[in-house]
Structures are given as structure tokens and as C-alpha cells.
TrEMBL record:
Transmembrane recorded as keyword: yes
Topology relative to the membrane: Multi-pass membrane protein
InterPro entries found in the cross-reference section: MetI-like (IPR000515), MetI-like_sf (IPR035906), Phosphate_PstC (IPR011864), Phosphate_Transport_Permease (IPR051124)
Origin superkingdom: Bacteria
Subcellular location per the Swiss-Prot or TrEMBL entry: Cell membrane
SUPFAM superfamilies cross-referenced by the UniProt entry: MetI-like
Species this protein is from: Lentibacillus cibarius
Name of the gene: pstC
Descriptive protein name: Phosphate transport system permease protein
Domain annotation ABC transmembrane type-1: ranges: 89-301
One of the GO BP terms on file: phosphate ion transport
């Protein structure tokens, strides 16, 4: 009887092992398939955008130097069409860096508040606020900016173009990238081992001296990564910025002047151009510039990640 029970248990175990092996194979196949799909999608999008983006230069004869350095954009002129994208490249970079200048101190400060100053209740209050900011659609940010921010700038600073300005785009983007910077900075600060804090306190340092001279330097590459990720998010934003920035073809001379970005010009004009026309191809070239700069952001992030100490 005992021999029969042992034999049955062995059969069940062998059957279970066989099922386990099949499950391992299925799981491995599924995750490999997911990875291959992601790689194929990325390569396909990059290749497609590269081919489309180069058509204006290789097929239509638009000078790439003029495209990047000229500030004259008049593609609809029948006599002398001009394809200078410098104002849009400048606008994209300007709102990206300015929004990072505003959002980075706020995000890192909020992270320090949640992890070092009041970790018990600070996270309970700020974390839902950050999650709420993440969940708000970009069109709502743009609508609030259009309704509140643009009139405020117009009335307060007497800005031209009724308040549509680089400043309005910067403020809207600052709020939009704040959750990204805050979340990553909070996780980074939370991962610091307590031994660093305890060692600093043991040497007689105060809390602020510990934060400023020990903790922040220890996680500086990760904090910079959070900022760069926020900048990458800001650089690709289109709808909210389009609603408040003014969308003009000129270079702004001050932060109160209207401007335009690569994304806003693409979204505004893509539906009004014939597929395959020179203007349509130049919009694809702007998309290619966006992709190249996004790759640069990724390279910076990977470089900073390789310098992490914690």
C-alpha cells in the first residue's frame, strides 16, 4: 500500500515538473516576443521617420543648413518658399530648459520634504497631489493656461499678443513635468542608506548640512537624471503648449513674446498640407529633429545613470 502511494506521489511530481517546464518555456517565449516587438517597433519608427525626414533634403532639394539656421519660414510662397526652422527649434529648446529651471528646484525640494523633513506625513499629503498632477490630461493643462495664465500675463506684464508667450508655455510645462522630477527624486532620496545619514549626524552635522553636503552629492547623478527625464517630457509636449505659446514664425526677443515649438508647428500644419509636398516633408524633417534630440536626452540619461553612486 505504501509502495503504491509513493509511486503515485512520484508520478504527480513528474507531471508537475513537466508542466513547470512547459510553463517556463511559455513564459520565456512570451517575454522574448514582447522584447522583440518593442525592438522592432522602435527600429521601424526610427527608420520610417528617418526616411521621411530626409526626403525634403534629398528629394525636394531643401538645404539642411538653411533649414536649421534660417529664421525665415514661409513654405506657402509661390515665388520664394522659405523653410527655416530655427525659430521652432529655439522655441522648443527655450521652453524645455526654462521649464526645467522652474520645475527642478520645486521637484527636488518636494522630494527632500517627503523623505528627509517629514517622511511620516509629508508623503501622505504630497504623494496624492503628485499622482493627481500626473493624471490630469495635457489638454486640461492647456485649457487652464489659456483661461487663467494667458489673461494674467496680459494684464500683469502688458505682454504683446494678448499674453500668448514663451512665459505661458514655460509655466504650463513646468507644472506638467513636476510630477516626473518629483517622483524620481523621491525614489532616489528614499534609496539612500541610513548609514550615510547616521555617519553624518555622528560627526556633528545638522540635518540641513547632512542634506546639502552628504545626501544630495551622493545622489546628484540620479537627480540630474530626473531633471533630464522631465526635460524629455517637456520637449515632446505639443497640445498644452500650442494653446498658450502663440504659434508665430518669428524668433522671440523676450520671454513675454509669442513663440512656437517644433511640436506645435507639426500639429498645426500636418493636417493642412498635401502628403508628399515639400511643406509636408519639411514637417517630417522637424519630426526627425525631435527624434534626434530625444536620442540625445536618452544618451545623457544613460551617461548620468552610469555615474550613480547609490
Amino acid at each position: 500500500m505504501k509502495k503504491i502511494e509513493t509511486s503515485t506521489a512520484r508520478q504527480r511530481l513528474l507531471k508537475s515538473n513537466n508542466k513547470g517546464s512547459q510553463g517556463e518555456l511559455r513564459g520565456r517565449f512570451l517575454v522574448t516576443l514582447c522584447a522583440l516587438i518593442m525592438i522592432a517597433a522602435t527600429i521601424s519608427i526610427t527608420a520610417f521617420l528617418t526616411v521621411k525626414g530626409l526626403q525634403s533634403f534629398l528629394v525636394n532639394g531643401v538645404s539642411p543648413i538653411e533649414f536649421i539656421t534660417s529664421s525665415d519660414w514661409n513654405p506657402t510662397s509661390s515665388k520664394n518658399p522659405q523653410y527655416g526652422a530655427l525659430p521652432f527649434i529655439f522655441g522648443s529648446l527655450a521652453v524645455t530648459f526654462l521649464s526645467a529651471l522652474v520645475a527642478a528646484p520645486l521637484g527636488i525640494g518636494g522630494a527632500i520634504f517627503m523623505t528627509e523633513v517629514t517622511p511620516s506625513w509629508g508623503k501622505k499629503i504630497l504623494q496624492p497631489v503628485i499622482e493627481l498632477l500626473v493624471g490630469i490630461p495635457s489638454v486640461v493643462y492647456g485649457f487652464i493656461g489659456l483661461t487663467v495664465l494667458v489673461p494674467f500675463i496680459r494684464n500683469t506684464f502688458e505682454a504683446p499678443q494678448a499674453g500668448f508667450s514663451l512665459l505661458a508655455g514655460t509655466i504650463v510645462l513646468s507644472v506638467m513635468i513636476l510630477p516626473t522630477i518629483t517622483t524620481i527624486a523621491t525614489d532616489t532620496m528614499g534609496a539612500i542608506p541610513d548609514s550615510l545619514r547616521e555617519g553624518s549626524y555622528a560627526l556633528g552635522a545638522t540635518r540641513w548640512q547632512t542634506i546639502r553636503k552628504v545626501l544630495i552629492p551622493a545622489v546628484l547623478p540620479s537627480l540630474l537624471t530626473a531633471i533630464v527625464l522631465g526635460m524629455a517630457r517637456a520637449f515632446g509636449e505639443a497640445l498644452a503648449v500650442q494653446m498658450v505659446i502663440g504659434n508665430v514664425h518669428d524668433l522671440p526677443s523676450s520671454i513675454l513674446d509669442p513663440s512656437a515649438t517644433l511640436t506645435t508647428i507639426i500639429t498645426l500644419n500636418m493636417g493642412h498640407t498635401a502628403y508628399g509636398s515639400v511643406e509636408n516633408n519639411t514637417l517630417w524633417s522637424m519630426g526627425l529633429i525631435l527624434l534626434i534630440i530625444s536620442f540625445l536626452f536618452i544618451l545623457i540619461i544613460r551617461f548620468l545613470s552610469s555615474r550613480r553612486k547609490i
